[in-house]
């Protein structure tokens, strides 16, 4: 099972590089959201290139609410040109500035990405009916609201659950995001429990990078 760390974008290049350097020996890939909460920052494709320069394999997100079909195909072409192999296509939260674009469905975006020779991913929620989403034709799926291995029963191995870590530092943010989260030690235990059930797991600790690194260190130690 691959271990993937979520890293958020920033306009601070040095900060991103420092974070990537700390993750380099701990994970197989990095997952890079695009404009979380609809708030603009440096594009995930740019962070993905920085990750590759540090020897990390990136999974970059592309928000469909921000682009029409021409814009999407330009971004997919850029990903291909830059050597970014893994892309996640999602509608995303409503943009904080400007109007949402509802020109391309997730399924259409997945098809376009695969035409480009990219490995296309999609999001699904384990709190909702997801059978139809699994028919979208994606190469892999990122699963939200995960807290117990039984939720993976009957799901294919290419469903990668997010394990979101909650700490005193990031608890207010987690509550605003309304995401399912677990304490650091439980995150380590969950990763151990699902090893062998899925091809990858994504570890996320929004707003607490130090906690993310510590959890990843413990997961790596448990896999030795």
Description:
Its cofactor is FAD. One of its GO terms (biological process) is tetrahydrofolate interconversion. With 224 residues, the protein is an alpha/beta fold. The protein has a single domain (2-124, 137-222), classed as TIM Barrel. Helices cover 34% and strands 20% of the residues. It is built from 7 helices and 8 strands; from the N terminus they run βαβαβαβαβββααβα. Strands 1-2-3-4-5-6-7-8 form an 8-stranded parallel β-barrel, surrounded by 5 helices. Helix 6 packs parallel to helix 7 (209-222). The longest helix has 14 residues, at 69-82. It is globular, with a radius of gyration of 16 Å. The mean pLDDT is 96.
Radius of gyration: 16 Å
Reading side by side through the largest sheet, how are the strands ordered? 1-2-3-4-5-6-7-8
CATH architecture: Alpha-Beta Barrel
Strand content: 15-25%
CATH topology: TIM Barrel
| Count of the separate structural domains | 1
Structural class: alpha/beta
- The CATH first-level class comes to Alpha Beta
Unreliable stretches (pLDDT < 50, length at least 5) are none
Largest sheet: 8 strands, parallel, barrel
- Please report the number of helical segments: 7
Helicity level, as a percent range? 25-40%
Q: Termini distance?
A: 13 Å
Order of helices and strands: EHEHEHEHEEEHHEH
User: Residue-averaged pLDDT, rounded?
Assistant: 96
């Amino acid at each position: 099972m691959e271990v993937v760390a979520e890293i958020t974008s920033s306009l601070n290049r040095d900060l991103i590089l420092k974070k990537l350097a700390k993750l380099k020996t701990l994970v197989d890939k990095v997952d890079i959201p695009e404009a979380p909460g609809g708030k603009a920052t440096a594009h995930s494709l740019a962070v993905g290139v920085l990750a590759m320069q540090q020897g990390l394999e990136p999974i970059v997100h592309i928000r469909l609410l921000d682009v029409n079909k021409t814009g999407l195909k330009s971004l997919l072409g850029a990903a291909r040109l830059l050597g970014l192999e893994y892309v996640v296509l999602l509608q995303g939260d409503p943009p904080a500035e400007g109007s949402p674009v509802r020109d391309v469905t997730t399924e259409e975006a997945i098809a376009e990405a695969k035409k480009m020779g990219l490995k296309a991913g999609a999001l699904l929620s384990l709190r909702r009916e997801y059978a139809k989403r699994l028919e979208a034709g994606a190469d892999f799926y990122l699963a939200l609201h995960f807290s117990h291995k039984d939720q993976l029963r009957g799901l294919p191995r290419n469903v990668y659950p997010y394990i979101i870590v909650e700490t005193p530092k990031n608890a207010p943010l987690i509550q605003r995001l309304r995401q399912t989260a677990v304490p650091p030690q439980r995150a380590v235990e969950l990763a151990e429990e699902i090893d062998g059930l899925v091809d990858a797991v994504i570890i996320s600790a929004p707003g607490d990078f130090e906690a993310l690194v510590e959890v990843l260190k413990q997961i790596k130690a448990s896999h030795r």
